[in-house]
Each structure stands twice: as C-alpha cells, then as structure tokens.
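Example record

Each entry pairs one chain with its bound ligand, flavin-adenine dinucleotide.
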Amino acid sequence: MKRLDAIVVGLGAMGSAALAELARRGKRVVGIDRFDPPHDRGSSHGGSRVIRVAYFEHSDYVPLLRRAYEGFERLEREAGVALKTECGVVMGGAAGNPASAGMLRSAREHGLDVEHFDGGELMRRFAQFDVPRDWEIVLEERGGFVRPEATVRAALEVAARHGARIERNSLVSAWGSDGRSAWVECTAGRFEAATIVLASGAWMPGLTGVAGADRANPFALRPTRETLVWIDDADDAAWRAGRMPVWLFDRGDRPAIYGIPAFDGMGAPRGLKVGLHGRGPSLPPETIGAAVDPVIVDETVAATSERISAARGRRVAHACHCMYTMSPDANFVVGLHPERANVVVAGGFSGHGFKFAPVMGEALADLAIDGRTALPIGFLAPRG
Ligand SMILES: Cc1cc2nc3c(=O)[nH]c(=O)nc-3n(C[C@H](O)[C@H](O)[C@H](O)COP(=O)(O)OP(=O)(O)OC[C@H]3O[C@@H](n4cnc5c(N)ncnc54)[C@H](O)[C@@H]3O)c2cc1C
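Structure tokens for the complex follow.
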C-alpha cells in the first residue's frame, strides 16, 4: 500500500469526525477501530447527548460550539439523517450555583440569547419540575440533544464515500513516529502515513501504558465508568421532547443530576434518560460490560425524584454503562503531541465532548495536514 496522508486511531465521536473531514479534503486516510463503530463499549452510545452553546464550563468553548452546530447541520445534509433536536435546556440550583452563573457569563461575553428566572417561574412554565421557588434558573432555547450512534454512523458513511479506508474490529497494538513519518501496527496489518491522529477515548492511557491524570501528558487521563438510567415514560407525555427541555440541576458537593427527555426513533431506549454527572467510580473501559450497580441506579432515580416527583416509584426501563475520560481540569486535551510534531492527540473529553465532535473533526484535520489550526483550541493544548 502506498504511504497514506493520515491514520486515525479510534473511530468514536472524535475519530469518525476527523476521518470524515480528512476524506472530504481529498486526503488518503485509513481509520482503525478495535470494535465495530458505532458500538456500546466506549463513550459514544446511549441514544442522546446534550448540546448547548451558553457553556457554563468555560466561555472559551462558545466559538467552537457555534461551529459544531453548523457541523451537525452539514452532516445531516450530507447523510440525509436527522441528528439534532433543539428542545431547549434549563440549568440551575441554589442562588449563585456554578451552572447558571457560568451560563450567564458565557451568554454575556458572547451575546447569546438566554432567559434568567427563578424556580417559581420554571415550575409555571414546566409543571414537571419540583424545585425551590427561590432557585436560580437559566434557559437556553437552542439547547437540546444529538443522536450519538447516528452521528458516528453518518461520519463514517461520509468518510467512506470520499474514499477513506475503514478497518473495523482491528486492535492497534503499537504506533510510532520519527517526526516525519508515522506507523501503526494493528490486527489488519501495518500502516504508514505522514501523520497519525490518536482518538482512542477511554483507552488513551492504554495506548502508551500511562495511568493517572497529567495535563502535560496527553495519555495520562483517568477513565471513569458512568451509569445511565431510563425511567419509564409509557403513560407520561409530559416527559417527551417538545414538552420537556433537557435539564441539569446542581447539587452542591454531590454530582449534578441531568435528564434528556424521551423521544422516538433510531433504536434509542424509551423513557426519560437521567444520570449523575461524574458519579463514577474510576474504572478502566474493560469493565463496561459488568452488570450495573443497583445502588447507583437507586441513587440516580432518587436524585431525579427530588426534582420530578412523578418519577418516584416509576419502573426503570433500562440502564447501562458508558465511559468518561477525565483530564485533571476537565478541559479536553487536543493538539500536537508535545514531543512528536506529526502525532495529533484528541483525548480527555471529560464527559462533555460529544457536542463538539464536528468542530473537533475540523481541528484535528487541520493539525494533521498543516500542523496548526485557525480554530481557537489553544486553551486545550497538552501543557505542563
Ligand atoms: C454517560 C455519558 C454521558 C455523556 N453525556 C454527554 C452529553 O450530554 N453531551 C456531550 O457533549 N458529551 C457527553 N458525554 C461525553 C461524550 O460522549 C464523550 O466526550 C465523547 O463521546 C468522547 O468521544 P471519543 O471519540 O473520545 O471516545 P469514543 O467515542 O469512545 O471513541 C474511542 C474509540 O477508540 C477505539 N479504540 C480504543 N483503543 C483502540 C485501539 N487500541 N485500537 C483501535 N481502536 C481503539 C474505541 O473502540 C472507540 O471506538 C457523555 C459521556 C458519557 C459516558
């Protein structure tokens, strides 16, 4: 095989987006995944992912999110599939809570449309919620959710249509680079290219054997195993997208509780999907197939029932695991490898990366081709 322009390792959210973008630009590329994506062994499954622009985590993400929304719309047109639903998002908690304070900061700095009101007004607009009347709430109409499996499938279809080679069920066991060329050994054989993009999600530590969490080392990241729960909505139209927004409520020192309303289609489990953000525990991705812990399921349903009393006593329709990959500061680790200029790393998406997949695909393609990007991702670079 002739030398390729780029090899993409891992075809989840980020790798599939990078492969599609490199192929769109006419590059000769191969994408390799140890499983058959979209699959349910990593971080990009479970039927839905929250999207929003007024980012409470850090306002530097806002320009990337604007671009990501356009990227989802482009992918919808290219693949002829609906990926995004803008049903609104509400976030809040006690006065001064970090979620609504951060949303307001991003909205102010970037001129975004949000509404700011109290818990009483939230319950007047959405009778499903039970929150203290003096809580502080922020609503962003453009928030909503995207479909992760359909997004990965669409990106891989687009990549293949533009000539990308895709190696499924092929484990990458070794990689290397001498600064000008790079190689990968995998079940399907050996590939050589000008550049490699490493986007192996919760297996980033496994690719080099580095454990822990260290911003200077893009492989020193900490996987956590999270639990998602679907509460039966069979007779409750009030929990469906269109009637209920996406929501997240701060709980002080305890993990925030969030929910994505029920919707039909694309094989997503039925019901109101809820989760405790970053509840963990810290475990490697090999444990994802273990039975869900009933204690965590009960904790999740109890936290939901505190804010949606109709959830109390309702049947759990489905529960599953999914991996977060935590960086030390919960910001992504994306950029050139600190010691190897032709290796691009994309990891540490810390439980909030999916909504960025299309814009990360563009940034990773820029870095792989030119070694730099005009997209404002400098704050995410691996650094000491
Ligand atoms: C419960 C949960 C809820 C979330 N909610 C949201 C949300 O609402 N909004 C949001 O924006 N984000 C959310 N996220 C985070 C988001 O889903 C992730 O940040 C994103 O999916 C990470 O994508 P990735 O490409 O890094 O990893 P993945 O999609 O897991 O892709 C990594 C790929 O690499 C492959 N791979 C690994 N090692 C090798 C190897 N050695 N050889 C070959 N292939 C390999 C794997 O098979 C996998 O396909 C959530 C995550 C979870 C778990």
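The longest helix spans residues 62-79.
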